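Hi R.,

Here's the chain you asked about this morning:
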Amino acid sequence: MPPPPTELFFGKRQLRTLTVNHRDYIVMKQIGRGGSSKVLQVFDSDMRSLAIKQVYLENTDDATANGYKNEIELLRSLRHSDRVVQLMDFEHRVTDQMLYIVMEKGDTDLTKLLQSYTRLNEVDANMCKFFWGEMLRCVDVIHKENIIHSDLKPSNFLMVAGRLKLIDFGIASQIQSDCTSIIKDSQVGTFNYMSPEAIEAQQVTRNGSSQTAIKISRRSDVWSLGCILYNFVYGITPFGHIKQPMGKLVAIVNREHPIEFPPVADCHLLAVLRGCLRRDPYQRPSIEQLLSDPYLTGCRCQVMSEVSRRRAVCVLSASGAAGALYKPPLDRVRVQWIRPAVRRGPCPWIHSDRPQGGEHRSGLRPAASERCLS
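And the predicted structure, written out as C-alpha cells:
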C-alpha cells in the first residue's frame, strides 16, 4: 500500500502531497476533469510545475481503461520528441484500481488561446499561419512514427514554454510498418472535427465473422486539422452551424452536402482549406505536402479577381486550379471590415465589396507585415 497523503500548509492554505512511484508531489489544485479521471497541478521536489492525471479504473469500462494504457505506451515511445507532451512517470495501483500519469504541464491549450485572441480581435493572417505551421509540425512527428491521433481538436494542442505540443493519445492508434491504414473497432473523436471515414461504419470480415469497424489513415488527421484551420479563419467549424448531432454526422459523410468557403484574403489559404476538407481521403494532401505548401513557404502566386457584393473568384496559376464561383453567407465569417491598403503588383488579398451598413466580413485581415510579391 502507498503511504497516505501528507498534509502541508502554505500560509493558511492546507496542501497535500501525492506519492507516485515513491516520489512525492505537492498538489496545488485541480485543473481538469473527465468522466473517470481528473488532472491535478503539482510541484515535484525540484519545484517544477507538472500535471498528474488521476484515473479511477474501477469506474471505467474495458475500452476506456485500454485507452489510458495505450496513451502511456505511445507517450513512452514519443519521449524523444519535443512536439509531444512529455511523460515523466506513471504508476498503476492494482489493489486500489488507480492509475497515475505524471506529465509536463502546459501554460494553456489552443482552445483558450483562440478564445482569448478572438475576444481581443487579434486573430490576423500571421497568427493563423503561425499556429497552422505549429500544428502541422506536431502531427508530422507522430505520423512519421506511424501513429494516427484520431482526436485532433484545439484542446488537444498544448502550449508549453512557447511551443505547441500534442496531448491526449487515449484513442490514438499505431499503424504496422507494412500498412497505410488501420481498422478501429469503435467510432472515436469529436463530431466537429471527425473525418467522414471515421464516421462511416464499414462491414468487414474477421475470422469468418462480420463486425462493424472503421478504416482510417493518416489523412483522417488532415481532415481534423482542416476543421481547426477553418475555425481559425471563419470562427466556426465547417459543420458547426448544424446543432443536431445526427444531422451533423449525416452532413459530414454526405458528399452532396457542400462545404462553404467564403472568400478569404489569401488565395493559398483557401486552397489549403479546400484540400484538407475533401471527403475523399486519397485526394487530401499529406502533412509533408502541407508543410511545403506555398501558404507556409510564401511562394509567389498570380491572382485574378472578379469582385461583386457576394462573389469572388481566385485563380491559382501556380497549381493550375481555379476556385469555384460561390456565394458565401456573410454572417458566417469572423473578421470585421478592414480597409485594404494600396499595394503594388499582383495582390493575393481579395475582399468583396463592403455591404451596406458599414460592416464587412471577408475572412482574415492581412497582417501589417504582409506585402505582395510583384
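The CA atoms of residues 48 and 138 lie 24 Å apart.

Let me know if you need anything else.
M.
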